[in-house]
Design goal:
Layout (H helix, E strand, L loop, with lengths): L3 E9 L5 E7 L4 E7 L1 H7 L1 H8 L14 E2 L2 E6 L3 H11 L14 H14 L3 H14 L4 H17 L12 H10 L6 H9 L3 E4 L10 E4 L12 H24 L6 H4 L16 H17 L14 H14 L11 H20 L1 H4 L23
Parallel strand pairs: 1-3, 2-5
Antiparallel strand pairs: 2-3, 4-5, 6-7
InterPro entries: BTB/POZ_dom, SKP1/BTB/POZ_sf
Pfam family, one: BTB
Protein name: BTB domain-containing protein
Length: about 375
């Protein structure tokens, strides 16, 4: 069966001096691009070195296996769609997306990222990575800005199919892992870990599940993950839950001495008693822990435990603004401020621990504001 040659409609320049071919072995097709050696060489030192090599003469006068329509033919062992994406960005036929959390950003840049990594096209790779990092940031403050946008969109588009608006993390994890773009992985894995899948019972007699939908308007294609990344997801998700629960139990055991001196309700009659202790302990147990472990009546699952960053933010606001029914049990503003600071400190600790929890070695090693130096061991 002869090969079918398909010329690119957009990447076929009349003054081009090189034809690049990407082959589809199964369909026996060659996708052809007529481009310029100088353009390719200016982008990639690998291609520049190839073009600087002396060209071998044809083995015989009639040998045209290395030419196409009289021009040198260069065969790429890459997917035609990836080659087309790369050349489209290089020739600025297409532009790298810049909208925040654009739903198809990964699809648009994956091919170009894959080949710019392979062929050492540093400037293009840096621009693409910058776009991905803006969606999946390294700093907690940037994550919070992102979440405000997401929550606003959730309210604005209530009732619509949110797949049309939200970036999906599993595809990002696949291409970032392949191209060693580690910095985006902790945030992506965290987002993936908070997707709780509500199982839908079958309408058939067997009662076997027919599928699953997101219980909190989050979407993910978990099925495309490789086994190693699924393991990271499971281990990291359990580590997150354990850390939150440990914090809520640990903070109740705070020593009294440190608070007696600052508590506004401390009396001279009982200088060794922390007056706000009981009120705070009641709040940690009856409000904070109950909120985190509260189960939706339809799911019987503690959904708030899936998103500890959001849950801790709410708890910090609650303790600051909390109005007790009984003024006798109401902690003073100083003690409530201490509790809020403890919650926010725990929130930052969780964020900085994401690389360790999800086993992503060196993901944020060079980020002074985002990662601790000792939390980069890969547990794979």
């Amino acid at each position: 069966m002869p090969w079918e040659d398909i010329k690119s409609s957009d990447l076929w320049y009349f003054d081009g001096n090189l034809v690049v071919a990407a082959t589809d072995m199964e369909e026996k097709k060659r996708y052809l691009f007529k481009v310029h050696k100088s353009v390719l060489a200016s982008h990639s030192p690998i291609w520049k070195d190839i073009f600087d090599l002396p060209q071998a003469p044809a083995t015989s006068k009639g040998d045209k296996s290395d030419t196409f329509e009289g021009l040198p033919l260069m065969v790429f062992p890459d997917a035609a769609s990836d080659v087309e994406d790369l050349f489209s960005f290089m020739y600025m036929i297409r532009h790298i997306p810049h909208e925040i959390l654009k739903v198809d950003t990964v699809d648009e840049v994956a091919g170009a990222l894959r080949l710019s990594t392979k062929y050492d096209i540093e400037h293009l790779m840096a621009r693409i990575v910058g776009v991905l990092e803006s969606d999946w940031p390294k700093k907690l403050c940037d994550w919070d800005v992102r979440e405000k946008y997401v929550n606003h969109l959730l309210i604005e588009k209530d009732g619509e199919d949110m797949d049309k608006y939200f970036a999906e993390p599993a595809a990002l994890i696949r291409i970032a892992t392949e191209c060693n773009v580690l910095a985006v992985l902790p945030a992506a894995f965290y987002h993936l870990s908070r997707v709780y899948w509500r199982v839908q019972p079958s309408e058939g007699a067997t009662g076997v599940s027919t599928g699953a939908v997101s219980a909190i308007a989050r979407t993910a294609k978990v099925e495309i993950l490789e086994a190693k990344d699924l393991r990271r997801l499971i281990v990291g998700r359990e580590a997150l839950r354990a850390e939150v629960l440990d914090f809520l139990y640990r903070v109740k055991r705070s020593r009294d001495e440190g608070h007696i001196a600052t508590c506004k309700l401390t009396s001279k009659a009982e200088p060794l008693v922390w007056p706000c202790k009981k009120g705070l302990n009641d709040w940690w147990t009856n409000h904070a822990l109950n909120y985190v472990l509260n189960c939706d009546k339809d799911d019987m699952h503690p959904i708030n435990l899936y998103d500890p960053l959001a849950s801790l933010t709410k708890l910090a606001m609650d303790i600051t603004d909390w109005n007790f029914l009984s003024s006798a049990k109401r902690p003073c503003s100083t003690c409530r401020g201490w509790a809020a600071n403890e919650i926010l400190a725990e929130r930052l600790k969780i964020w900085e621990s994401l690389p360790r929890m999800f086993g992503i070695k060196d993901a944020w090693r060079n980020e002074e504001d985002s990662s601790s130096e000792g939390e980069t061991n890969d547990d794979d």
